[in-house]
Amino acid sequence: MWARPSLVRASVRVPSRTLHSGPVLLQKQGRDRGSPRAHENPLELNKMGYFQFDDIPTFGHMRLQKQRQMLAYYRLLANQLPALKDMHEPFTPPPATHFLSFRFVHYQGEEHPDTSKVVLTFDIKDLFRANVLHTPQAKHKFLLLAGPRWQPPSTALIQRWNDALERGEKELSTLANEEALGSVKIASSDLPHEAQNMKWCSDVLDSMIREANAEPLFTDVPLDVRPYIKSNARGGRTSRPSIADFPKEWL
């Protein structure tokens, strides 16, 4: 006698342990892969790094952090900057005798070999006005001693200086009183500390002034124009062509 299909299906029983073996295995594998489950604690999921749509995204936190920084600066501006008025001192320009400029290099929070380098710069006109060089011949000798350290505004000034040297002391004195005479740069980085390099630059300047006022004056030696000539062979730079270099009929 054949049994009905419904009775056959009802007679087949599967143990409950076998039914749950599959989901339990998937749940264990899911935890290993890091996938969240809906019935787990949201606090635990947040600790694991899952986004539960209960917070703003990363870009929103970046915007909030930027606003917090601006708010901190506004607090400084409102609370601490008014206290700086008590330390205010009026600016007093340096006198004409203080014309030496020392340049230092610092890298904040970092050690670098250039931190000991010191560059001394001053204008020739300020040195001549200080009357430390007694005669026009001494000024000429000082420029000879400066050599390539002197940076004239143009090579034409060197030729004018040599011409004035041949004409006499009066012409040389007139040319020495001009405004644009260039500057002198003295640098040092051989010593380990910047204070030592600063003292070395100052001592070199004092020695140049002392030797310029001493005999002989070398009035028969003209200034050398070769260090200031722009040449490709000497590594000089050439100016780029501009519109003014083209003929008018081409434009």
pLDDT below 50 for ≥5 consecutive residues: which ranges?
Answer: 1-36
For the largest sheet, list the strands in their spatial order.
1-2-4-3
Order of helices and strands: HHHHEEHHEHHEH
The quaternary structure here is single chain
> What's the number of helices?
9
* Biggest sheet character: 4 strands, antiparallel
Could you tell me the mean pLDDT? Answer: 79
Keywords: Ribonucleoprotein, Ribosomal protein
Region (Disordered): 19-41
GO molecular function: structural constituent of ribosome
Domain Small ribosomal subunit protein mS35 mitochondrial conserved: 90-250
List the helices and strands and how they pair.
Layout: H1 5-11, H2 16-33, H3 42-48, H4 58-79, E1 101-104, E2 118-123, H5 124-129, H6 136-146, E3 150-151, H7 155-167, H8 169-176, E4 183-188, H9 194-213
Antiparallel strand pairs: 1-2, 2-4, 3-4
Question: Can you walk me through this structure?
Answer:
Pfam families: MRP-S28. InterPro entries: Ribosomal_mS35_mit, Ribosomal_mS35_mt. This is 37S ribosomal protein S24, mitochondrial. Keywords: Ribonucleoprotein, Ribosomal protein. Residues 90-250 form the Small ribosomal subunit protein mS35 mitochondrial conserved domain. The structure is a single chain. With 251 residues, the chain is an alpha+beta fold. It folds into two domains: 28-81, no CATH class; 101-228, no CATH class. Helix content is 45%, strand content 7%. The chain has helices at 5-11, 16-33, 42-48, 58-79, 124-129, 136-146, 155-167, 169-176, 194-213; strands at residues 101-104, 118-123, 150-151, 183-188. Strands 1-2-4-3 form a four-stranded antiparallel sheet.
